[in-house]
Specification:
- The structure is a homohexamer.
- Chain A is of the alpha/beta class and about 230 residues long.
- Chain A is about 45% helix and about 15% strand.
- Chain A has a 4-stranded parallel sheet with strand order 2-1-3-4, with helices on both faces. In chain A, strands 6-5-7-8 form a 4-stranded parallel sheet, with helices on both faces.
- In chain A, α3 links the parallel β3 and β4.
- In chain A, α4 packs across α9 and α7 packs across α8.
- The longest helix of chain A is centred in the first third of the chain and has 17 residues.
- Chain A starts with a strand and ends with a helix.
- Chains in contact: A-B, A-C, A-D, A-F, B-C, B-E, B-F, C-D, C-E, D-E, D-F, E-F.
- Chains A and B meet through α4, α7, α8, α9 and α10 of A and α4, α7, α8, α9 and α10 of B.
Chain lengths: ~230, ~230, ~230, ~230, ~230, ~230
């Protein structure tokens, strides 16, 4: 039997989905769960506003309802539709923002978020507060690049390194969470340059999901032993 | 190349170490990291007091310094020696209490802790507060069994189920963390009986460690792509 | 010149909209702003789940964008679409949950929420936390009536009085917020029976909106005086 | 029947009282409640110290006891005597600091306070903390003008705009509360210059009081409908 | 040279002042500071309401201004006039509520308050919150005795023991603060019966004041040594 | 009968112990408790890392168990071994960090900590959070001097004054706690230069301990009077 983890990129950008899936390659084992990544055709090209986040929330829950899996990951840093998705399935549903922040918290007292857009920060702050995690947040700062610039790897990396440096030196962050999905290709280099842990939140959530499906797999045996 | 995760049970109880290792079997893949579990001969048979926790803290840091690994897990729910262990190695060191609580938080708004002993609860509460996680803690309640009773599986399970039920119904817990290492054999049955997620904290920490070593593995490739 | 306040009931229930509008009659003055109440034809009959709240959020923002007004009130206790609505207009947009809680806080140290359904409470708690208001919340309890029972005024009133009494006596609430729109008809009687302030959140938000439009009205004169 | 709202300026400065009353003109309707503003002859010319705030507290409660009204507003940003006033009457008593902060919170995630004097800030911070609202406070900064300068409108406006700008750009305030009574004449211009909502706290409290008296007015009808 | 600590009982009850002074006898040493206790003739017989607390606040500051001392203690559990008193002298002024709570916090994770009257509790809670100490407060419960009962030692002790027991067993208090001045005669017996530390707040504040005056005494020598 | 307070310097530095003892001279009265200061031969020369703090924790508890006293003070700003020491004796055990912070809190709304080493600050912050006191902490800054520099009084004083000034002017501290034991010789001069209260934490804890032993002394009499 093989379990399946479904990673849902709520926007319609195939490139992002492909980048996500590549960044999960290390977690695919012959005996391990299948890890599938999909995007949502009806979603916007990116989640850049509260309207975008609100628009995709129902689509995420619908995607969950429509595509059976053993665990789901909502792969957008606003975790849109997370709670409604949980109403739509009995399988566990994880959000990458939550799991990414937890992963950073496991390595340091406070974390910083590198966001793409300044306008997303108030949305992030509301979400962090809703989770009572504000005391652990050192800061949230945006790289604020244009679409053209975002297509240039070295520019993105340079800007992320600058923002990360400010989060560490000025805001006191011990670890960094990349506040967006699909940026994992920069993770290792950024971590090397910044000298503190850098978390790709999708990786964090997928590994959490792996634990859930793998421990469920072990259940029959456990039940036998504890009986 | 194969990475190694070292799970350190800070007490001297081989039975606990063996139970831990068995509960990690699902996470051992042919292509995955080695997961080794050790105990500390000089440690007490169990961590039952602040004196016990204080006594093992330096031993944990020494064990980390003495035994090279790619990631370490401190496998006692008080995370003794976690911060000193980080001073002793450049590899990441994770604590099972922190990772166990995060795993529960990823699945619900508030979590309950099932402790073995009542006298451990003040220690847990101080630790939870030090992490600013008190607002997420629904409650911490002890099964308070004698050593003789703890050796009887059905008694332990029954008592854990009672305490878990109180944490859910009375304290409002959405998920349960087992506040001790080496109890994973009860996890699945308990989860089934309680109807909410039940977390074995060692499993949670080991999977976090897997992510860290696997993403480090992927690093060369990432660095190449982002260059 | 007459300003217009648009109150948006995000569900499609005309009865609720009519009840809301009647409860705002006291705030309609000859020289005051027009207060219009609308519902959303595409909305669900009631907001009973996270899926319902997520579904109406984009509709609320669209309703705001489509219907020019000097101030808007989102009239559902989850304040769905509030933040996206603010992206869609330069007029102020208020949420009844926020304004209702503030109104209660102005009269007592802690407030209780009377919800319709138990399943809405986790959603409310997340929202209250996102606003950093959890320390002021004494409790949130549901009347949990069937649809048939909800149609019977005396049954609803009786149950609200019971739940309100528990919020006051057991949870320590100093004031009560009705955690739903369209229940204003019970407000005064409930307040009389409970002996503490009872807030209809729609009334609270509409009066806040009146202040905003009336002080904007006064602006020319103010600007002149301060120049 | 006409209800009466009594606004109590706890200092003896008629000019402040007159300015307050003018700023409430927009809320006086033919069919609405009477809004009277009084000052306290025995009060100091201004509330500039903790001693001043303490001195007027009993006078406010006495003024409430001596002058029957349907709702009271304590119109000094320290809300002096608010809780004792509530012991002295069965009518609701509102404080402008509380209502002003709530009004700002209804429009943004965090608010800034423009104070007159630096020495009032510790008193404000204690009060904000007593209400558990510190997480919403972006900052409190003083214009620190001399009495002579305070008499010059353009100087005051200029300085308020500077301080407001710092609260927004440096402290992250989304909305501004004027931390004093009697400054409403600057509100609209300041709001225009700063580009974020600016709240006159007396206006906020008076409108809250209007809601209370108007919904009480509606009570007979409500009781009838819900019976 | 002999320093003087002035303990101000803000009510006019000589019996309370005398009981206070007796309870401070252990802290009077031949070479130590003088510890004087006074009451305020114009104060009420007891502080039983917010009006009482507000009424004595200015009197406390006046007493401080009128009677030179090296350190002052405001000896009423509401710490009335504390902040204004600090404006009136360059000597340190301490409040017994603050010092009493700190003394309990030094001995346990959470403290309970035994109040005389139920109606004082909201005032206490506001004060505790203003100090950001709410997370340390296990509970505040009143003995609620009549004046006649308060004159009977055994009745008071019995009731305090009952309330203290509830604070410990039900609310989880690790230490108890007596929420009133002049009750020190019951402290030791109560502590013996309850089995947890019981703090008389006046003793706590006076000892804090002793430290301040004694370290000031040592100052010349210190300055010499560090030069 | 004479009570004995035992002050335990957990490092092996006799010079520090001697400085501590001298700084407690003012609290030694003919009729008062004996105040003894000891160090721990097996301890490190200073507590400069988490490993050092962890290493001394069991030694502190052993010292308490081995040397009977009426009250104990753990005299290292990390309060190492405090909770285990409480398990080892029925006498009260106080930590200087806790008592030092309380002493500062009794005199101002927020306090700053002057640490010796930057690397100690994360440890301090975790401890402050474990006590729920983070909202009162203005900042923690290190003088970061070399061992050679630490031996030069004027250099230390100068650097402490600089750091203290930053804590006050930039972080908003109202009072300063010296974040280390054995620095009391600088206290008075530093307080004079900074113009705000400066607390030596060992003095604060010892005076707290004096209160505990002196009120225990008074117990027989109290019990008699309340009977």
């Amino acid at each position: 039997m093989t379990e399946r983890i479904l990673v849902i990129n709520p926007n319609s950008n195939h490139g992002v989905t492909r980048a996500m899936s590549e960044a999960l390659e290390s977690f695919r084992f012959a005996e391990g769960p299948v890890i599938d990544c999909i995007d949502i055709a009806a979603g916007p090209p990116g989640i850049e506003s509260q309207a975008d986040a609100d628009a995709v929330a129902p689509l995420v829950a619908q995607a969950v309802a429509a595509d059976p899996a053993d665990a789901y990951v909502v792969a957008c840093f606003s975790d849109p539709g997370l709670y409604a998705a949980r109403e739509a399935t009995s399988s566990p549903v994880l959000g990458i923002a939550q799991c990414g922040m937890h992963a950073a918290m496991a390595l340091g007292a406070s974390f910083g978020i590198i966001s793409i857009l300044q306008r997303s920060i108030p949305r992030h702050l509301r979400y962090v507060a809703s989770l009572h995690l504000s005391p652990r947040l050192a800061g949230d700062r945006a790289i604020e690049l244009t679409v053209a610039e975002l297509a240039q790897g070295p520019v993105v990396l340079e800007r992320m390194a600058q923002v990360g440096r400010t989060l560490i030196d000025q805001d006191g962050a011990d670890a960094i969470v990349m506040g967006c999905a699909g940026m994992a290709a920069y993770r290792a280099t950024l971590e090397h340059r910044l000298g503190v842990p850098v978390i790709d939140p999708t990786q964090a959530a997928v590994v959490d999901a792996m634990r859930l499906v793998l421990t469920a797999r072990a259940r029959a045996g456990e039940a036998r032993r504890s009986a």
